[in-house]
Amino acid sequence: MVVATQSLIFTEKIEAIELPIIDLSADRSKVSKLIVKACEKYGFFKVINHGVPHDTISKLEQESLSFFSKPFPQKQRSGPANPFGYGCKTIGFNGDVGEVEYILLHTNPHSIAQCSKTLSCNPIKFSSAVIGYIEAIRRLACEILELMADGLWVSETSVFSRLIRDVDNDSIFRLNHYPPFCTQNRDASPRNITKIGFGEHTDPQILTLLRSNDVCGLQISLEPGVWVPVPPDPTAFWINVGDVLQVMTNERFKSVKHRAITNSLESRMSMAYFAAPPLGAKITALPETVTPERPPLYRAFTWAEYKKTVYALRLGDNRSNLYRLP
Ligand SMILES: C=C1C[C@]23C[C@@]1(O)CC[C@H]2[C@@]12CC[C@H](O)[C@@](C)(C(=O)O1)[C@H]2[C@@H]3C(=O)O
Ligand SMILES: O=C(O)CCC(=O)C(=O)O
Ligand SMILES: [Fe+2]
Fold first, then answer.
1. Ligand 1 centroid vs 25 CA: distance in angstroms?
2. Quick one: CA torsion of 159, 163, 165, 167, rounded to 10 degrees?
3. Sign of the dihedral defined by the CA atoms of residues 283, 288, 292, 294, in that order
4. Second label for 3, Cα 20 to 30 Å away, from 28, 69, 168, 252?
5. Does 2 fall in a domain?
6. DSSP state of 205
7. How far apart are CA 252 and CA 268, in angstroms?
8. Where are the alpha helices (DSSP H) in 194-287?
9. Residue 324 carries which DSSP code?
C-alpha cells in the first residue's frame, strides 16, 4: 500500500526559546512553584535528577532498538496497532499518517505480557523491560502530579496522582521510531529532507512523560504557525500537560501542541508514557481553580466519554472545545 507523506509547510516560523528545566532534587516548595509556572506558561518542561535509574531506561531502549531493527515483514506480524501492537505510518483510525513506526501498549502488566508474545522472541525479557520502565515512570509521574497539586494549593495532594495509581487506570505507553529520511540528489550527495514524523496534536490524557535518544525532532507550538525546537536530552524527561489536566485546572495549565519531525540522517527513538485516569473517572475542574472571576470553562465528563471523542477525531483536531460550556 502506498501511503502519502506530509512535507513541512515553508511559511512556518521556527523560534528558539529557552524552555524551563526543573531540578527535582531541589527544595520541594520551590520546585512546585516552578512546575506550576511552567505549566501555566508553556504546558511543557524538562525534569532532571528525576530518579529513574539509567539501567531501567537503557534496558528498554535496547529492546526497542532490537525490535525496530527487525525486517519489516517480521515487525508487521506484531501489528496492526488495533488498539495495541505495531503500527507503521498510519496513526489512529481516521487517515492520519507520518514517517514513524511505533509500538502501542496498555500499561496493565497482563496486557503487556500478552502483547510481548508477538513483539519479541524473548517475551519475558521484553515485558520485564517494559514493566520495569512503566513502574519507575509512573512513580515519577505521581511525584510530579503531587508537586503540581501542592503548587496549586489544592488541599488534597493526591488529587491527580490517585487517578493514575488506581488499578484500573487507562494509561498507555508508546515506543516511536523515526527512521532517517535521507534521499540522494543528482550529484549523489546526501540531502537532509525534513518530513512530518508525528503531526501536530495535543495529548488527550493527564500528563505525558517523554524521553528520546540524542536526536532532535520534537517541537512545541505556543502560537499558531510558530514552532519551538525541543533539544534532545537522553538523560532527562520532557513533561507535557494533556487535555484532562487542562480541564481539571480550569485552563490554568495549557495542554501543549507538539509534533515530531524526521530531521536528519539519524534515526530517532522516543518513549512516551501517557498517564490516564480509569475509564469511569469523572473529569471536572478542581474547586480551587474555580473563582467568581473564572467560572468553570468545561462541562463534566468521564474519561471514557472523552476517549471516545478522541478516537473519532483526527490527530490535529481540537477535542476539549467540544466540552466547553457556552
Ligand atoms: C489520530 C489519532 C491517534 C491518537 C488517537 C487519535 O484519534 C487522536 C489522538 C491520537 C493520540 C495522540 C497522543 C498519543 O500518541 C495517542 C496514543 C493518544 O492517546 O492520542 C494517540 C492516538 C493513537 O495513536 O492511537
Ligand atoms: O516522538 C516524539 O517526540 C513525540 C511523540 C508524540 O507526541 C506522541 O507519541 O504522542
Ligand atoms: Fe504527543
1. 32
2. 140
3. negative
4. 69
5. no
6. S
7. 33
8. 243-248
9. B
Residues forming the active site: 268
Asked whether residue 221 is assigned to any structural domain, the reply reads yes
Tell me if 203 CB under 6 Å of ligand 1. yes
DSSP-derived pairing of the beta strands 44-48 and 21-23: parallel
**Is this complex's ipTM strictly greater than 0.95?**
yes
Total of domains in the chain: 1
Q: Is the dihedral of CA 258, 214, 19, 290 positive or negative?
A: positive
pTM: 0.95
Residue 185's domain comprises 13-311
CATH code of the domain containing 228:
2.60.120.330
Instruction: Give the Cα-Cα-Cα angle 117, 104, 114 (nearest 5 degrees).
Output: 25
Which pLDDT tens digits describe the chain residue by residue (326 residues)?
Answer: 334 456 666 678 999 999 999 999 999 999 999 999 999 999 999 999 999 999 999 999 999 999 999 999 999 999 999 999 999 999 999 999 999 999 999 999 999 999 999 999 999 999 999 999 999 999 999 999 999 999 999 999 999 999 999 999 999 999 999 998 765 555 555 566 678 999 999 999 999 999 999 999 999 999 999 999 999 999 999 999 999 999 999 999 999 999 999 876 899 999 999 999 999 999 999 999 999 999 999 999 999 999 999 999 999 999 999 999 99
Verify whether ligand 1 is closer than 6 Å to residue 282 (CB atom): no
* Cα 135 to Cα 155: distance, rounded to the nearest angstrom: 26
Nearest to 323 by CA among 310, 178, 196: 310
Locate 23 and state its grid cell. Answer: 531540578
Residue 109: phi and psi, rounded to 5, are -55, -35
Radius of gyration from C-alpha coordinates of the chain: 19
- Ligand nearest 175 Cα, by number? 2
Residue 214 located in a structural domain: yes
Rounded-to-5 percentages of helix, strand, coil across the chain:
30, 30, 40
Return the residue matching grid coordinates 467560572: 295
- Asked, for residue 85, whether it belongs to a domain, the answer is yes
The verdict on the CB of residue 198 being under 6 Å from ligand 2 is yes
Question: Which residue puts its alpha carbon closest to atom 8 of ligand 2?
Answer: 272
